[in-house]
């Protein structure tokens, strides 16, 4: 129950809060996506770290091994990483299209353009 | 082998497999034909499942024959069968409608991609509803959300891109909060199967991580279902998305998110844990009341028809979460039946507005002036769907408000019952604005004069308009199904 024992949890919290802060505080769309990626990374750590036991092996049924690490979180997070990559790719693709349509990826500049044009579709 | 035993898997697998097939085929006509056939199949499948659940009780399907709780379980009970029918029926209507509407709104080289994304989104939403595995639910949620971001960003105005981007950011935060909640539950119990979770949570209910999980799941799903004040992505997304996407999104995506919230509250955590450990009921009721009052008032002052009904959606979602917050049988019946009723009502409205957009190229409020002269069937359909939105007796919307009032009275919350009735008057105000413009004003230069919307748009829209009336009188499916679902949720265990 020391700080070192809870190190991964502290890092998870730091990444989680830091990522979310970047998403909220930054107006640049790409920086928002970076914050989002950091926020998602914290979840990977949350799942994976508790799956590992010191001295644990893969779950092999044998007399020689008594302590097992849990492989399931790794499999889950493999899926979550794929989802994260897909989200990032789609977000960047939309950011490119926004750059083409507005000439900027700064949120305040885009909103200023939106405020001035009244040709609503 | 196509046997009835594998229906739960086919319900999701067929739309999922159709998406890459459509991308390979590329021809717009064939792409539409596949998407429509798959949506029709999904509808037939959901009706058969609902019928079997009503006759035989809960259906459990072990995916790949791995027995639950180790394998992924697909579980169809009274509530999920009910939501499956809603999603699949709206999907089928929207798919048929899409052909003419998408031909007018999107460049031809994007058509096959639209239908691929539509099938993928349908598969994701159906998967979220049918699965009995918490992590599998997250995967399907991301499948439906990612395809939904694309569908919204396809809108013809450049603001659609920004709306899609905003939804992507907020939707991903919501989904990540959801998966944090699931992770904490997994760490506390060592299982991901919902039925198994429900059982094991009873032994660890006092652990702090379980309460944290409840908080994360609530925030995550509230973002997805657009609970006030987390609704900021919704008005832009509904306004700038292609017409058929607005209808599909309004009628299904937020509804499935509410289903997931109800599933976790009442099946996984159990109402005792949710209501006693944290003041969830009070929080939900307070936010719902704010949503109903604020969003209804904002809707009255909108200058765009799609945006007006988007804010109305935020308010109507408030009625549903109010029912969830009441957490008694009439309240949950109201929430479930309003899921369905609001789905068909809003679906009808956005499909009819798609007809206006088809003729006028936009949906500004000035287009509505004298609309009853140039597009009489569209205007009349809007009036009927508007009456259902208000909750006039004889329409579907009345039954949900009726149960909501009963639920509030059962708890002795008379002020809530009065509020439900009073806020319906605000709905009268914004629906009347449309009626006044369409029936009492002369057509102006902005009014579309090319005549009524084509039949291929009008017929699917009127199917939903007719459903608003039919389900107001013949309530055995919607109220009967909703009450069975509510009793199951409160009966303890799945």
In short:
Chain A is mostly helical and 121 residues long. Helix content of chain A is 66%, strand content 0%. Chain B is mostly helical.
Question: Your description of this structure?
Answer:
- The complex is a heterodimer of chains A (121) and B (494).
- Chain A is mainly α and 121 residues long.
- Chain A has helices spanning 7-25, 29-48, 72-102, 107-116.
- Chain A is elongated.
- Chain A has 4 helices and no strands.
- Chain B has a two-stranded antiparallel ribbon with strand order 1-2.
- Helix content of chain B is 77%, strand content 2%.
- In chain B, helix 2 (28-56) packs antiparallel against helix 3 and helix 13 (305-326) runs parallel beside helix 17.
- Chain B folds into 2 domains: 1-278, no CATH class; 280-494, no CATH class.
- Chain B starts with 6 loop residues before the first helix and ends with a helix.
- Chain B has helices spanning 7-25, 28-56, 78-105, 111-130, 134-153, 159-189, 194-201, 208-225, 234-240, 243-269, 271-277, 280-300, 305-326, 329-360, 371-374, 376-390, 396-410, 414-440, 455-473, 478-490; strands at 59-62, 73-76.
- Classes of the chains: A mainly alpha (121), B mainly alpha (494).
- The interface between A and B is medium-sized, with 32 and 33 residues.
């Amino acid at each position: 129950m020391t700080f070192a024992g809870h190190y991964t949890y502290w890092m998870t919290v730091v990444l989680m809060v830091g990522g979310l802060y970047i998403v909220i505080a930054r107006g640049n769309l790409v920086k928002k996506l970076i914050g989002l990626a950091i926020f998602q990374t914290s979840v990977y750590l949350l799942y994976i770290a508790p799956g590992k036991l010191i001295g644990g092996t893969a779950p092999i049924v044998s007399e020689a091994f008594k302590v097992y690490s849990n492989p399931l979180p790794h499999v889950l997070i493999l899926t979550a990483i794929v989802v994260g990559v897909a989200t990032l790719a789609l977000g960047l693709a939309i950011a490119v299209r926004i750059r083409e349509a507005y000439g900027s990826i700064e949120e305040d500049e885009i909103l200023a353009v939106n405020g001035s044009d009244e040709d609503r579709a | 082998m196509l046997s009835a035993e594998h229906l739960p898997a086919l319900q999701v697998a067929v739309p999922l497999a159709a998406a890459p097939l459509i991308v390979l085929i590329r021809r717009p006509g064939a792409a539409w034909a596949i998407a429509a056939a798959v949506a029709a199949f999904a509808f037939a499948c959901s009706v058969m499942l609902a019928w079997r659940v009503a006759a035989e009780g809960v259906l459990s399907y072990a995916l790949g024959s791995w027995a639950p709780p180790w394998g992924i379980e697909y579980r169809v009970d009274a509530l999920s069968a009910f939501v499956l029918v809603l999603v699949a029926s709206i999907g089928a209507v929207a798919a048929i409608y899409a052909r003419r509407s998408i031909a007018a709104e999107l460049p031809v080289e994007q058509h096959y991609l639209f239908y691929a994304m539509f099938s993928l989104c349908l598969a994701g939403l159906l998967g979220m509803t049918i699965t009995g595995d918490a992590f599998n639910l997250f995967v399907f949620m991301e499948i439906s959300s990612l395809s939904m971001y694309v569908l919204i960003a396809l809108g013809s105005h450049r603001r659609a891109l920004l709306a899609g981007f905003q939804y992507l950011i907020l939707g991903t935060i919501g989904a990540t909060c959801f998966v944090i909640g699931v992770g904490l539950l997994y760490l506390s119990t060592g299982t991901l199967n919902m039925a198994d979770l429900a059982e094991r949570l009873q032994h660890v209910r006092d652990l702090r991580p379980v309460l944290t999980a409840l908080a994360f799941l609530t925030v995550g799903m509230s973002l997805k279902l657009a609970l006030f004040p987390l609704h900021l992505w919704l008005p832009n997304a509904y306004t700038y998305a292609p017409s058929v996407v607005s209808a599909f999104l309004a009628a299904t995506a937020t509804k499935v998110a509410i289903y997931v919230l109800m599933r976790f509250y009442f099946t996984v955590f159990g109402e005792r844990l949710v209501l006693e450990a944290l003041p969830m009921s009070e929080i939900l009721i307070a936010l719902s009341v704010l949503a109903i009052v604020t969003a209804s008032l904002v809707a009255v002052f909108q200058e765009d028809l799609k945006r007006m009904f988007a804010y109305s959606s935020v308010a109507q979602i408030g009625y549903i979460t109010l029912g969830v917050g009441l957490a008694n049988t009439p309240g949950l019946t109201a929430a479930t039946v309003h899921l369905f009723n609001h789905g068909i009502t809003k679906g009808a409205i956005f499909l009819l507005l798609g007809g206006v957009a088809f003729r006028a190229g936009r949906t500004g409020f000035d287009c509505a002036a004298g609309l009853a002269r140039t597009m009489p069937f569209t205007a009349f359909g809007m009036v009927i769907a508007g009456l259902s939105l208000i909750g006039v007796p004889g329409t579907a919307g009345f039954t949900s408000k009726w149960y909501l009032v009963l639920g509030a009275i059962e708890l002795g919350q008379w002020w809530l019952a009065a509020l439900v009735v009073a806020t319906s008057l605000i709905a009268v105000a914004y629906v009347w604005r449309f009626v006044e413009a369409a029936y009492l004003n002369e057509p102006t230069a902005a009014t579309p004069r090319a005549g009524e919307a084509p039949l291929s748009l009008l017929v699917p829209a009127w199917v939903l308009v007719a459903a608003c009336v039919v389900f107001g009188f013949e309530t055995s499916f919607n109220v009967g199904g909703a009450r069975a679902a509510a009793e199951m949720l409160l009966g303890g265990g799945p």
